[in-house]
Amino acid sequence: MTMNVTRTAIPDVLVIEPKVFGDDRGFFYESFNGPEFEALTGVKTSFVQDNHSRSARNVLRGLHYQVRHPQGKLVRVVMGEVFDVAVDLRSSSPTFGKWVGVTLSAANKRQLWVPEGFAHGFVVTSDYAEFLYKTTDTWHPEHERSLLWRDSTLHIDWPLQGEPLLAAKDAGAKTLREAEVFA
């Protein structure tokens, strides 16, 4: 096996740690292997879109989700470091409204599996970070929603240095009480 899978406090959200082969020349690892991912996680999925973003320190992106065409996301960082968060928006789930946060970095090479039905976001904790993610559905801007990053009912412990840098859609996001959620 070329990866280790760990369940988080929300069992459907998974930390994926690849086996890294390195020497004085550098390193190699498989960032994704479909059959192994399915065998180790029990998640049968196919990815249809890859995204790549670059952000400066204290940029907070999210918490994003799509009400129709929900996206599962396999996320990782290839430069720098982020604190990555998934919030369960499945109203029938025992972990509805709960969140889990994981540090992802180029150094630790961890990935996070965020299933459909979750809001997702991150804050950059290094000078810059490059963030890559695979999605199970394409982006549909008309169905995209943002959950308020500082919603007091969520109590997310963001590792911020002052106020975050936000997009307008994230600054004006809805609280969990106001948000459209999943059944």
From TrEMBL:
It holds the Pfam family dTDP_sugar_isom. It is an enzyme of class 5 (isomerase). Its EC number is 5.1.3.13. It catalyses: dTDP-4-dehydro-6-deoxy-alpha-D-glucose = dTDP-4-dehydro-beta-L-rhamnose. InterPro entries: RmlC-like, RmlC-like_jellyroll, RmlC_Cupin_sf. Pathway: Carbohydrate biosynthesis; dTDP-L-rhamnose biosynthesis. It comes from the Bacteria. Keywords: Isomerase. GO terms for molecular function: dTDP-4-dehydrorhamnose 3,5-epimerase activity. Belongs to the dTDP-4-dehydrorhamnose 3,5-epimerase family. NCBIfam families: rmlC. Catalyzes the epimerization of the C3' and C5'positions of dTDP-6-deoxy-D-xylo-4-hexulose, forming dTDP-6-deoxy-L-lyxo-4-hexulose. Homodimer. This is dTDP-4-dehydrorhamnose 3,5-epimerase. It comes from Cupriavidus campinensis. The lineage of its organism: Bacteria, Pseudomonadati, Pseudomonadota, Betaproteobacteria, Burkholderiales. The gene is rfbC.
